[in-house]
Design a protein that fits this description.
single chain; 12 strands
């Protein structure tokens, strides 16, 4: 198996939660302590962690900086951090708190020149372009608003500018355990075969992860399926 496995920790009020389709009213707390959850992931052999500051996404600036710092201080996990990154100050805060990479989505839609400047300043290895998709169009500001940016042209502009890492979430699938948008990710990889695409949303089982692996998707983020006991990491490790 070649796909990179990335567990997710989404944070509201300092707690590890999951939403359904990005709906803050459909919130379930899975662990009161995200740091202990991160340590548990590390013990299981994971190398990387996707952390989302959901409070930050709502507030439009980083809120859970202290939680990020706690995770990076207590583990050796490579943490990519997103949610509420709207300014260079937010990026600096995230890196200062130990993030290895930051995920930026809304700014790439609303202020493309700013995103390109950040890409140049910090480098493609430190930046993940977040492309959250609903009905084929990129959604912004914690999935509260849909833009007029169609996914593939949006990605094309940034791939040409040097973007290497893309986190693509199908909002209609996220937190539903209904299976990932594998065909959408196939289209993205066909159009941009050299990017490191991270599939996100809808993963419900080991079989979903294996299907993404078979489709040639480089990486996958999963959350609810893990917390609901639907993924067996030892079983996945034995797949070749």
């Amino acid at each position: 198996m070649n796909i990179e496995l990335i567990p997710a920790i989404d944070i509201i009020d300092g707690k590890c939660v999951r939403l359904t389709k990005g709906d803050y009213s459909q919130k379930k707390v899975y662990n009161e302590d995200p740091v202990s959850q991160a340590q548990a992931f590390e013990r299981l052999g994971f190398k990387r962690l996707h952390v989302v500051d959901l409070d930050g996404a709502k507030a439009k600036h980083i809120v859970n900086e202290a939680v990020l710092r706690g995770i990076t201080s207590a583990t050796r996990l490579k943490v990519d951090f997103g949610g509420g990154i709207k300014s260079e100050e937010d990026i600096e805060k995230a890196f200062a708190a130990g993030a290895s990479m930051v995920t930026v989505g809304s700014i790439a839609v609303s202020q493309p020149q700013t995103f390109l400047e950040w890409l140049k300043t910090y480098g493609a290895g430190k930046m993940i372009l977040g492309a959250d998709v609903r009905n084929g169009f990129v959604s912004i500001n914690g999935w509260k608003e849909d833009s007029k940016e169609a996914l593939l042209p949006f990605l094309s502009n940034y791939v040409k500018a040097g973007v290497k890492n893309v986190l693509c979430t199908d909002i209609s699938k996220d937190g539903t355990l209904a299976g990932p948008a594998t065909e959408l990710y196939r289209k993205v990889m066909k159009a941009f075969p050299h990017i490191h695409l991270i599939a996100s949303g809808g993963v419900s089982s080991d079989a979903d992860i294996l299907a993404l692996d078979s489709a040639g998707i480089p990486a996958v983020v999963f959350g609810k399926a893990w917390y609901e006991g639907r993924i067996d990491i030892e079983k996945l490790k034995t797949q070749d």
